[in-house]
Each structure stands twice: as structure tokens, then as C-alpha cells.
Amino acid sequence: MQTKAAILWERHAPWSVETIELDPPKLNEVLVKIVASGMCRSDEHLVTGDMAGVSPEPPLIGGHEGAGVVLEVGPGVSSLQVGDHVVFGFLPACGRCPSCASGHSNVCDMGAVTATGMQLGDGTSRHHAQGKDLALGIGALGTFAHHTVVNEMSCIKIDKELPLEKACLLGCGVVTGWGAAVYAAQVEPGDTVAVVGAGGIGSNAIQGARLAGARVIAAIDPIEFKREKAMEFGATVTHASIDEAIAAMPETTWNRGFDKVIMTCSVGSGDVLGQAFWLGGKRSKIVVVNIHPTSEGTIAIPAAFLTFFEKQIIGSLFGSGNQRRDIPKLLELYTQGQIDLDGLVTKTYTLDEINQGYADMDAGKNIRGVMVYEH
User: Fold this and answer.
1) Residue 333: inside a domain
2) Is residue 292 flagged as an active site residue?
3) At 364, which CATH number?
4) Number of domains forming the structure of the chain
5) Burial per residue of 47-76, b for 16 or more beta-carbon CB atoms within 10 angstroms, e otherwise
6) Which domain holds residue 264?
7) What is the rounded CA–CA span in Å between residue 356 and residue 14?
8) Within the chain, which residues score under 50 in pLDDT?
9) CA atoms of 22 and 203, how far apart (whole Å)
């Protein structure tokens, strides 16, 4: 079949929206009509090359936060049928590797397969344009398209009454931020928490810290609009810079430093992480969620204080969560009014407006842009 998709033909180029050829699903695969796709910063890293070596090379179709309706199931599919509504999880889990077996499906060995951008089952492509096979970006999903073919293990079935244009955000940003606070940082009632970067992921880290019972949540971001939105999501105080937050610690943390520091900047920086290290108090957890360029070889951390103050630096992928557990859980919290998905969506776009959407993101105009597709 033919459909439309946004293709990255080379690094540092705009997304090109054009017609592609899409093969039918094969063993354990499904064809999905995508209704909405979040515009996550991680896909911008495909453009810049910050994820070189751990993501496919162009030409590729981007997008990993998607939700849609199953149109066709291939042989061997047992958990889905035509008409089901699904959210894509960008971290497919095999259930058998050591990580999955130990309860850490977010670092499943399938990650090495998704890094190729090819289909998880046979390593070939279902997406083609201009006579070339197209890879799929993060998670081997390709949600910057009106239709895609993905493996069954990448799909989480949800209730048909839930709005897909909001549910799509559960595929990455919401669980990543919420889980960073609840699972990785292990925020407890009464904790003081600093969130460095109040965009799409940081906003959800704030929501997670609020639900976990933090008494102080400091949102740190240079953009006033994001600081204002952070207060709506549960921040108790905001700062325009890390230096400003450090200067205010005698009042915000009773001069003890923050119990938890969650790094959710747009692009990770070793220097910024080294600066944020000073936000943490004794036995604090500094959780690194944002993606650092793979070319960055070092971070500036005074190692002695890891010992003397027992500070911990913790990496977190997908909020250290589990897509089959946490996507339904957070959708239930949304229906109960405990998680705000509506407020995350600043503006919606069409597929043809993808480059404008990312320009708005770079300009700090959006918490999260969402592309809603008309068919």
C-alpha cells in the first residue's frame, strides 16, 4: 500500500514528507493506522547525530510516540486483532533475556535490534521510498507516518474510549518523566526534589514527584513559559538557572541540598551535570534521564563527594519503567484526574507541519507538540 511519512534523508536536513510504499505485515507483525504522534526531543537527536552509533542511519522514518488502530494482523499474532486501539512502546521486550527475566524490560536485549531500524523479527524493511529501503528511527516504530508496520511486542492495547492524541504521549515522555521520579529517584513523601529542565519529560517528572509526596519540587528552566507551566504540574518553586537554585537552597531545602535531582534537559551536557551535582545533599540521588551526545566522553563530577556524601548518580531509560505495566497504569491515573495529559499538549500539527513543530520546540514554545493525522 501507499501512505505518507516524514523521512530524514541525511543528518541536519529537514524532514521530507512524501509518499512511501508499505509492505503488508509478516510473522508477528501488525499494520497500524496511526492517529497521533508525539514530537519528542529524542527524534531531533536523529537529525543532529547525537545518537550516532545507537540509532539507525538515514534514510529513516522518525517518530516513536504513537497511537493508532490495528488494520491488519500478520501470521502468528495472538494478542491483537483488527480494530484494537494501541499505544506503541518504544522499548519492545522479549521477556526472555537476563534483563527481562530480572524485571528490567526497559533495557531488554531487543534494544540492539531496534538500533538497526529494521523489523524485529527478520531484520528487513517494510518501508520503501525512491527505490530505497527505509529504516525506522527510535524503537523501530516510524510514527511520523499515516501507517506503519511494527512487531506485535511493540503494541500495548488500550481502551477504545481513551483519546489517542493524548495516549500517544505514554509511549515515551510521560512514563519516562514520571518513572524517573517514582522508580529511578524513588521519591518519598517529604522529599525535596529538583527537576532540571521543564519540558515534556521534566513536566512529567514533576507530576511523578508530586504524586509520590515530595514537599518541595523545584523546576529549573531558563524559559519563563515552561516555569509557569511547571507550577501547574505541581512544582512548588521555580528557578531560571542552576546557580539561582543553588543560591536559594538555604530556604528551599533548609540548607541541606535536594534529596533527589532529576536531569531532564533538552540535550545532556557533562558540564551542566557537573554543576547540577551541587544541588544534591548528602545521600542524594542524581538521576540522568536526558540524552547526552554519544560523542561526549567525560562528565565533570568531583568524585570525592560520591564517597564523602554518599551521593549517587543513576541512569534511567524510559523512567526505569515497564511499558506493559506503566502505560495502562498511567492512563488509569489520567482518567482519575491524577495525571494531567491534556496540559502537556501545547499545540497540535499535521504531518506536513512537522518541521514547524520542531522549530516551535526548539524555540521553547511547546511543552509537547502532537501531530494528529487525518486520513
Assistant:
1) no
2) no
3) 3.90.180.10
4) 2
5) bebbbeeebbebbbbbbbbbbbbbbbbbee
6) 177-318
7) 10
8) none
9) 36
- Residue 229 CA: distances (Å) to CA of 111, 280, 340, 343, 345: 33, 24, 12, 8, 11
Tell me what pLDDT residue 218 has: 98
Three-state SS at 107:
helix
122 & 158 share domain: yes
The cell numbers describing 231, all together, are: 507550577
Q: Distances in Å between the alpha carbon of 354 and those of 17, 34, 65?
A: 8, 15, 14
Catalytic residue among 37, 45, 100, 108: 45
Q: Establish whether 375 is a catalytic residue.
A: no
Would you call 64 a catalytic residue per the annotation? yes
Residues 153 and 183 in one domain: no
Contact 268, 201 (CB under 8 A): no
- Alpha helix (H) residue ranges in 169-296: 173-179, 200-212, 224-233, 242-247, 249-252, 270-276
Active-site hit among 64, 85, 146, 147 = 64
Q: Are 233 and 203 in contact (CB under 8 A)?
A: yes
pLDDT at 53: 79
Query: Is residue 30 located within the same domain as residue 143?
Result: yes
- pLDDT the model gives residue 375: 62
**Which residues fall within 8 angstroms of residue 11, CB to CB, at 6 or more apart?**
47, 48, 49, 58
pLDDT of amino acid 50: 85
45 is catalytic: yes
- Do both 153 and 185 map to the same domain? no
Residue 326: inside a domain: no
**334: in domain:** no
> Catalytic: 127?
no
Identify which of 194, 183, 242, 247 has the alpha carbon closest to the alpha carbon of residue 216.
Answer: 194
Catalytic residue among 100, 155, 168, 172: 172
Question: Do 20 and 166 belong together in one domain?
Answer: yes
- Residue of 37, 40, 203, 269 with catalytic role: 40
- The SS3 call for residue 129 is strand
The reply to whether 335 falls in a domain is no
Side chain identity at residue 68, one-letter code: G
- The whole-number pLDDT of residue 153 equals 94
88, 66 contact by CB (below 8 A): yes
What are φ and ψ of residue 348, in 5° steps?
Answer: -110, 155
